[in-house]
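Much of what follows relies on a compact textual record of a protein's fold. Think of the row as the fold of the chain written in a discrete alphabet. An example makes this concrete, so a full record is given next.


***
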Amino acid sequence: MPDIIQLLPDHVANQIAAGEVVQRPASVVKELLENAIDAGATNIKLLLKDAGKTLIQVIDDGKGMSVTDARMSFERHATSKIQKAEDLFNLCTKGFRGEALASIAAIAHVELKTKQAQEELGTCLKIEGSNIISQDFISTGKGTSISVKNLFYNIPARRNFLKSDTVETRHVIDEFQRVALAHPNIAFLLHHNDNEVYHLKSCNLRKRIVSIFGIKMNEKLVPIDEQTDILNIEGFVAKPEFAKRKRGEQFFFVNNRFIKSSYLNHAVVNAFDGLLEQGAHPSYFLYLTVPANTIDINIHPTKTEIKFDNEKALYAMLRATVKHSLGQYNVAPVLDFNRDANLDTPYHFNATASAAKAPKIIVDPNFNPFKEEKNTASQSNYKPQKQTESWESLYTSLAVDTFEKQEVLFDNQQEIDTKKTFQIQRKYVLSSIKSGVVLIHQSLAHQRILYEDFLESITVKEANSQQLLFPVKISFSSKEIEMIYTIKTELENAGFYFDEFTKDSVTIKGIPVSVTESKITIILEELLSDIDLEVPDASFSHFDVMAKSFAKTLSIKTGTQLSEKEQEALVNDLFSCKEPSISPFGKATFKTLTLNEIDNLFTS
């Protein structure tokens, strides 16, 4: 029988390796930015075209490479970071596997320009699909410029799997933000299609966070700082009142490397115990510094997961540190059950004040215990207090009140039985039908009603808009401004009208008639969060996501008391919908119970 196992050709092996390293343009951005940081750059520029599909260029002022190193950097598993296996457990750099540039060059057109400070000329290297096209000496500045063009040009199937430019741009910005947050001492510049998205100067951590997420972030931050023998923690957490419904601004950095850890996230959430509403998630920017030999960062291809030697200790310290900071900055209440508040010295107490005055003693000289009380009272200035009514009288009013309340309760019960609808626990609406009863979830039902109304307004008929007397200016991050501008047309079709866009704010002069001015910010933040999820690149899909987001934000919530007319209107509007049985998110809006099913509940 002939042998069937054979070595793969180099170009096939390179493409397989590229599939692990390069999943989308954001993957290339991450690798190139990290290489620039490892090169000691203080200024890094990222230039994009068509969300990185056409061009990704990173320019840095780092130490550059020699002619030989420039050529060797594109060989598989060639690196300057490690020499022996033990080095894998004592890493202090970003890239170390030596496969990033080789993988990128296998599926794109790459041009590298680099020069070291002591050299007069630099090197220009051009590669297409792992094949070196040319290598020349050029005149260039100190540092490195690497351009990646036509990503996945030789793997059309992989290119077809890429999402829309809007979605891919968001992934690139996510990677850019993570790198920029990890290194506030480095200046970063991001241009997309010749438009400046970020211009971040070298600064401290707080300013870097604010410059990325907008000026309104400054008031939300509570500083964290704790130094121990095995762990240093610094950074910020957001105040509980600014918690969000979805996980968004949650960043962990270990030794200046962004990581994802559900275990450490649980520690932070635990520290907020009792301070967050149900379903809310805290925002945080936490930087952990641990000895390099106590972590393993080589357990996942993307290097975003880390294994710790002492996870339990880190969990306890992180939880305690966050909890302590929340209490220290008066964000969380601090309770001391051993302290008697009555013994606290008032702040206005003056130690030099005069001594406390002795109580004045009044003696009735005419008092005679042997005289009758009536005579004593008439002959002296002493007036006894009015006698309290007999103890039986204390129960008289209580019994009357209780009886009256019972009568009212029974009267209401009789009224409830005759009503068409009845609200249960401010969550459900019960309505009688010929075959039995129908139980309606008031919030989900209202979502369906609003969803169909919004969708019709956006796609079929012209939406009604109300002009604001005073335009509203709302602060957003650069990423959020980019997203709003992308869906500007759809928002205007929904009834929004915009006056001005800047790098960190948007001015609104008109809103849909169904939206109140106080809810503008909430609606847009929820909408951006929903659109941030990957959706197909179709105009109707944007309309659909928008209608769902509006319906979810503006619908009546559980716990809202509804009048009889509001209950009946909800029922009528629901069954006037095209799809009354399910919410926009696929949940049942009502359940019916037939008379037979009700009878069966009481039969043995």
Summary: The chain has three domains: 10-200, 205-328, 436-590.
